[in-house]
Design brief:
35% helix, alpha+beta, Creatine Amidinohydrolase, Chain A, domain 1, Creatine Amidinohydrolase, 6-stranded mixed beta sheet
C-alpha cells in the first residue's frame, strides 16, 4: 500500500468514530493480524495500516471518541513517530518506562458498562484473554465487528495464488510421514483432533507452498487433523487437479475456505481438541462447542518444523552459498559504482535483487528490503519509499538488511557497508557490534540452554560502552517459509509470559547485534546459524553453531586494535570460509576483490 496522507487518516478515523457511535462502541481495536494470527499479512488484512497510516509489521491501534493510540515495539519507534505525524494518533512505545500496556490503557478508559469492539477473526486468542482479564466485569466485548471493512471502499480481494508441492528432495520428509508423526503425538496425548490455523505450520506439514502473502510462501487455509483424515480448508482455485489427487491419496480432503468456522463446530463436538492459543484467533476459540474439551498447547508441528532435518540443513547451506555469491557480487558492484553514478536506497535494493535473481531456484525476497543510508540506517526496520528514497554518496554507512527465498531455504542477512571513509567513532561502534556477532557465533554451550542464556555474548561489547540496541538479537527462520519463525530466539529478558525454547539441533537462528544513533547512522551485522551437536562427555551434551551466511564483513570499518587474538582468529577463519565457498563462482575481478577483503588480519 502507498503511504497515506495524515489528512486522509484523520478523515478515516472520523468516519470510523461515526460507525462506532451508531453501534454504541466506545473503543475499537485494530490489530495487524489476519484470520491466522500471522505476522505478515496480505493487503486484504491491512486494516491497521488503512486506519493509521503506519505500515510496520507490528502494531495495534485503539480508537476512542476523543483519542487514539498506536502500540508498537522498539524496531518501529522512529518510523511510527514519522508516519503518525498529524494523524491525531499517539505513539505508545511498548516496554518503555511509564508506557501503559494496551490492556491496562483500555481498562482505565472503559468504565461504566462501556463496549469494546473488534473483529474477533483477527484478534489473537492470547490478546483477547489479556483484555478479558484486565477489563472490568461490566465492560461488554463485541467481537463480531469488521467496521474497517464497512468503510474500506476498494478493499483488495482475498488472494488465491497457485499452490505448489515441495518435492521430497527439498522437504526431507513426505507429507504422509509428517502426518503420521503428528497422529502419533495426538495418540500419546489422547487427542481426537488438532486444529491448526497458522499458515506456515500448514504449509510445512503438507509440503505445500503458496503465494498469498508477500515474501512468505504460504496460502490461506485452515487444517483439522483427525485420526484417519485431515481436512484442509482453502481456495479451490489455488490447487490444480494433480495436487488435489495426491492430497486425497494421503488422506487430505480439500474443502472451501469459508466453510471452516461451521466445520469447526461439526468436527469438535464432544471431542478432545488441541489448539495453540498463541496461534489462533479469538473467533476460533469462541466458535468451539461447549462440549469440546480444549487442550491448550503449542502446535504439534512447532518443534518438528523448527528442528530442520538433515536434508533441509544441507539444502539450507546450499541456499546460503547461492545467496552469498549474489550478495558478494553486489558488494563488489556497489564499491565500484558509488560516487560514480546516481545511486539511491531503492536503486541499490533493486540491483541486489537482480543479482539474487540470477541464482538457480530463486523464488523472491523473504521480506521487504531494508536499505538505510546514513541517518535512515538508525531506523531499525526502515523501508524506503518514493518519498523517503535518498541518494548515496561515497561516505557514511549503508545498512542493508535483505533476504531471499530459494527452494533450498530462506536467507536473511544484514551488512553495514562503508561507502567511503568512516570516522573513528563509526569504526569503534562497528567493531563493538562485530565483536558481539563473533562471540555469539562461536558460542559453545551445554544442551538445555535457551537463547536468554546466550544473548549477553552479543550485547556485552556494547554494554561495556554503556550502549545497547532495542530489539532481540536473534529469531528463528523457516525452511523456504517465514523469515521469522519460532519458538527459538535470542533476547536478554523474558517477554510477558513467553516460554523460552531450548536450543535444539537443526534449529536455524539469526545473530544480529546492532547500534543505532538517531539522526546519524545505524550499524547491524546479521548472520544465520544452525544449531549443531558437539562432543558428549561426563559433563553432558555440548552444543554450538555453524554459521550459514557466507558474505564478508566490512574491513574498512574495523578497528583492529579493539580485537583480541581470539576475535582475530574467529574473523580470519570466517573470512577464509567465505572465500573458499564463494570464490569459485565469481568472475576474476570479483574474486580478486574478495581475496583482498578477506585477507587475514
Amino acid at each position: 500500500m502507498k503511504p497515506i496522507d495524515s489528512r486522509i487518516v484523520r478523515e478515516r478515523i472520523a468516519a470510523l468514530r461515526s460507525k462506532m457511535k451508531e453501534q454504541k462502541i466506545d473503543a475499537y481495536l485494530v490489530v495487524t493480524d489476519d484470520f491466522h494470527a500471522s505476522e505478515y499479512v496480505c493487503d486484504y488484512f491491512k486494516c491497521r495500516e488503512y486506519i493509521s497510516g503506519f505500515d510496520g509489521s507490528a502494531g495495534t491501534v485503539v480508537i476512542l471518541q476523543e483519542e487514539a493510540g498506536l502500540w508498537t515495539d522498539g524496531r518501529y519507534f522512529l518510523q511510527a513517530e514519522e508516519e503518525l505525524k498529524g494523524t491525531g494518533i499517539t505513539l505508545y512505545r511498548m516496554m518503555d518506562e511509564g508506557v501503559p500496556e494496551l490492556e491496562d490503557f483500555l481498562a482505565e478508559k472503559l468504565v461504566g458498562g462501556a463496549t469494546l469492539g473488534f473483529d474477533g477473526r483477527t484478534v489473537s486468542s492470547s490478546l483477547f484473554r489479556k483484555l478479558r482479564k484486565k477489563l472490568k466485569d461490566d465492560v461488554r466485548i463485541a467481537m463480531g465487528l469488521d467496521l474497517i471493512g464497512e468503510l474500506w471502499t476498494g478493499r483488495p480481494a482475498l488472494p488465491s495464488q497457485p499452490v505448489m508441492e515441495l518435492p521430497l528432495s527439498y522437504a526431507g520428509k513426505s507429507r504422509e510421514e509428517k502426518l503420521s508423526e503428528i497422529r502419533e503425538r495426538m495418540k500419546e496425548k489422547d487427542l481426537d483432533c488438532t486444529v491448526i490455523a497458522s499458515l506456515d505450520d500448514i504449509a510445512w506439514l503438507l509440503n505445500l507452498r503458496g503465494g498469498d502473502v508477500l515474501y512468505n510462501p504460504v496460502f490461506l487455509s485452515f487444517l483439522i487433523v483427525l485420526p484417519e483424515e485431515a481436512l484442509l480448508y482453502g481456495n479451490r482455485h489455488s490447487f490444480d487437479n494433480e495436487i488435489i489427487s495426491r492430497l486425497n491419496n494421503d488422506g487430505v480432503r480439500l474443502l472451501p475456505y469459508e466453510d471452516f468456522y461451521q466445520a469447526l463446530s461439526d468436527h469438535t463436538e464432544g471431542k478432545r481438541v488441541l489448539i495453540d492459543p498463541a496461534r489462533v484467533t479469538a473467533a476460533i476459540i469462541d466458535q468451539m462447542p461447549v462440549s469440546a474439551e480444549i487442550v491448550e498447547e503449542s502446535n504439534l508441528t512447532l518443534l518438528p518444523k523448527a528442528k530442520k532435518n538433515p536434508t533441509e540443513v544441507e539444502n539450507i547451506k546450499e541456499a546460503h552459498r547461492k545467496d552469498g555469491v549474489a550478495v558478494t557480487r553486489f558488494l563488489y558492484w556497489l564499491k565500484h559504482h558509488v560516487g560514480k553514478e546516481p545511486l539511491t536506497e531503492i536503486s541499490v535494493s533493486k540491483k541486489l535483487e537482480e543479482f539474487r535473481g540470477e541464482g538457480e531456484h530463486y523464488r523472491g525476497q523473504s521480506f521487504a528490503p531494508i536499505a538505510g543510508y546514513g541517518a535512515h540506517g538508525a531506523i531499525i526496520h526502515y523501508e524506503a519509499t518514493g518519498d523517503t528514497d535518498i541518494p548515496l554518496a561515497p561516505e557514511n554507512f549503508l545498512l542493508l538488511d535483505t533476504g531471499g527465498q530459494y527452494l533450498e531455504g530462506t536467507t536473511d542477512i544484514t551488512r553495514t557497508i562503508a561507502l567511503g571513509a568512516v570516522t573513528e567513532e563509526q569504526k569503534k561502534l562497528y567493531t563493538a557490534v562485530l565483536r558481539g556477532n563473533l562471540a555469539l557465533g562461536a558460542a559453545k554451550f551445554k544442551y538445555g540452554c535457551i537463547g536468554l542464556n546466550l544473548d549477553y555474548l552479543a550485547r556485552s561489547p556494547l554494554w561495556e560502552m554503556g550502549m545497547d540496541y532495542n530489539h532481540g538479537t536473534g529469531h528463528g527462520v523457516g525452511y523456504y517459509l517465514n523469515v521469522h519463525e519460532g519458538p527459538q530466539a535470542f533476547r536478554f529478558k523474558l517477554l510477558g509470559n513467553a516460554k523460552e525454547q531450548t536450543l535444539e539441533e537443526g534449529m536455524v537462528i539469526s545473530n544480529e547485534p546492532g547500534i543505532y544513533l538517531p539522526g546519524q547512522f545505524g550499524i547491524r551485522i546479521e548472520n544465520l546459524m544452525v544449531v549443531k551437536k558437539l562432543e558428549k562427555n561426563e559433563y553432558g551434551q555440548f552444543m554450538g553453531f555453524d554459521t550459514l551466511t557466507l558474505v564478508p564483513y566490512e574491513p574498512d570499518a574495523i578497528d583492529v586494535s579493539m580485537l583480541t587474538e581470539r576475535e582475530k582468529e574467529l574473523l580470519n577463519r570466517y573470512h577464509q570460509t567465505v572465500y573458499d565457498e564463494i570464490a569459485p563462482f565469481l568472475a576474476p575481478e570479483e574474486r580478486e576483490w574478495l581475496s583482498d577483503v578477506t585477507k587475514p588480519l
